[in-house]
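A note from the maintainers: we've had questions about how concatenated examples are separated. There is no special marker in the raw files; a new sequence line simply starts the next protein. For clarity in this README we add a label.
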Amino acid sequence: MLRRARSLFKGPEPVAVQHCLPENRLVYAIADLHGRADLLQLAAEAIAKDMADAPGADTLTVFLGDYVDRGPNSADVIERLSAGDFPTPIVALLGNHEYIMRQAWESDPALLQWCDFGGLPTLFSYGVDVRGLQRGTNIAEARSAFCAALPPRHRLWLENLRSSFELGDYFFCHAGVRPDVALSDQAIEDLIWIREAFTSSGKSHGKFIVHGHTPVMEPDVRDNRINIDTGACMTGKLTILRLQGETRRLMQVSAKGLRPAK
């Protein structure tokens, strides 16, 4: 499978765009893993192979948040990323699911809210008995067990997630930005939660926005933004955006291998 995946990742020629990165920079972006450690592994393999075609490039992978919840292996995703176990240096951004997860270890009501928001699989991945939580009971016991099971490195990594990242003509965030607000003045709530006000806007935001958060069947490419959340947890497809110079390429990994994104 890996031999086939490598040839597919070379895929179509990169598309020339109006936006660019600084010279010698190569950036990959990945959104909304939601506990899919298997797809994270496939993405790592694909990126490691692709990097061989750009020797000497200053390479970085930007993760756009939502590492946890819904999928089966959130703890494994955090373990790998917090350990820096990836072919490139990484920048890890905050998603709304990590925002709620961080509140959940502070109070019982927040933990219960997190469970309703998809947190039960994450708790289970950390070895927490969730049977009581499924009935709305044993909340304090479950929170105590979660805090005990959460490795200090995981907690520190989650506490230090960035809300956004800029490089060249690109601005990376989880959900999007508030139109008509300077990128430097964006509220964290918008960066991790916004949907319609952002996705329906065709206005320029000063830089090209790379985001996830709102699942789409295929990457949604607009003049002012690109959404690369292809619902990995539900569809089994994880999109990788590759940016270099004035070119852009989209690929997807899945259990069936790699293919060019539409």
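[label: protein 2]
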Amino acid sequence: MVGTRLDMACRVCGGRDVELFLDLTDQPHCNRLIPPNLAGQREPHFPLRAGFCHQCTLVQIDYTIPKESMFSDYPYVSGTTKTLVAHFKETSARLVARYGFGPSDLVVDIGSNDGTWLKQYEPFGLRRCGVEPASNVVELAHAAGVPTLNRFFNEETADVILAQDGPASLITAAGVFFHLEELHSVVRGITKLLKKDGVFVVQAIYLGGMINNVAFDQIYHEHLCYYTLCSLQELFSRHGLEIFDVDVVSVHGGSLEAHVGFPGAHPISDAVTRMQADEEARGYGRFETYLRFAENVWHLRDDLLALLERLHAEGKTVHAYGAPAKGATLLNAFGIGPRLVQYAAEKNPLKYGKLIPGARIPIVEEGSVPVPDAYLVLAWNFIDEFLARERAYLENGGAFIVPVPELRMITAADLPAGA
């Protein structure tokens, strides 16, 4: 029940005053896609509940699926999305220019996936080391020539890298820092591996952006923590590190990019104090803010279901555009299945022929089935890329249903003029 205390210790401060504000029901692991031979069996479901720590303001889920179950084999590949590749290219060039990294410097990427980010350092000659637990995507990284350790990053892995490559000038973690079951061991490993004047750059989906966009679908079992600057500072200060610069970058609907180092190693930017003041003004440290967020989620559910039911009654077909992890949260929380959304069209071959867990919507290769009257865009954070790619579909009468940040239906009339 909303407003009750969750039976857990806060993942950052260890306090036990974590209050429930959003219960998305029991759900299966969003990335454990269902192969056809198991379609007749019900997959395991686990509580998906978000709570607020009244002591350190961290937002977190209370149930932890063991990391070995979620990440040892993984269907997500960074390199399939042009937007993400371009983002990593820009970020790499920016970091190299700002900190003057060169061939003698080591960059370590935590949760490096198929090596997409590390590839972008190749023109600058940096020594590179990826750390990735999913053996299937490590094979892709090795095939691309990116040195990658097939293991979870933690304090022990930091020791391995120190012995193998020496200390790191730059450590990065993009889209992974909220995944960490061994959170404090990971940060201890960072402090051990980082040079005294080195930089740890973390990009994590920004809780402020989630609130503003009603992006509740970013909540799933892989994402254990949801950070503001305040809660992230609380974590790093406990390990003798400080955030000296911060920004919000556009990727994934708004991600916090924090630059972290040892105290005094880098001047603290005015951006840190500005964001602290902004978070205070927006109420990110108050429980009432999250209760309003939950209310907005349920309003979105009612509006989206009404739209899908109307299209169904009119005999219109609707497919999902993509089958991202966040899509499983939305579909399962709102009770959407194949009656309302017949297929999910995907570019990632690792997902073809499988079913979205819980919702049981079949995942098909893009172009392998007739186009629908409308697509429900589950990967809404890449909508600009999709609109450019599917202009002809829209001009031929198709439509995109975009649920976040607000429910809207995009048709050809909404496209900008020109190619």
